[in-house]
Amino acid sequence: MRNEIIYGLFCLLILNAVFQGGEGAILRSLSPLLLLLLLFFFLFFKVQNKPLQIQRNPLYLPLFLVALSLILSTFFSPSRGNSLRGLSLELAYLAIAFLGIQLFSSKKSAERVGIFLILLALFEAFFAIGQWLFLGMDRVTGTFHYATFFINPLLLGTGFLLGFLLFDPLKRWQKIFLLSALPFFLLAFLLSGTRAVLLSLLSILLFLGFLKGRKVLSLLLLVALLILIFALLLPNPLQERLLHGERNIYAFQRPRIWLTSIHVIRDHPLFGVGLRNFELLSPPYNFPVENAVGRYAKKVEIPHNQYLLVASHSGVLGLLSFFLLLIFSMNSGIKLRSHGGVYAGALVGVIAFLVHFLVDNPLYLPVNGFTFYLLLGLLGSRFQDSKIHTLNRVRARLYLFLLFVPLAYLLSKPLAATLIYRQGVEEAKKKNYQKAIRASRAASILLPSESLYQNAQGALYSKYFEETQNPLHLQLAYKEFKTAIVTHPILPFYREDFADFLYAHREELEKMGINVDDEIFHQIHTAISLDPYNPFYRRKLAIHHANLGEKKKATQVLEETLTIEPHYLLVRYQLILFYRELGEQENVVKHYRILLSHLDQNLQQRVQTPYEKDLVAFDKDLLMDLPFLDSRE
Question: Considering the entire predicted model, what is its pTM?
Answer without folding.
Answer: 0.88
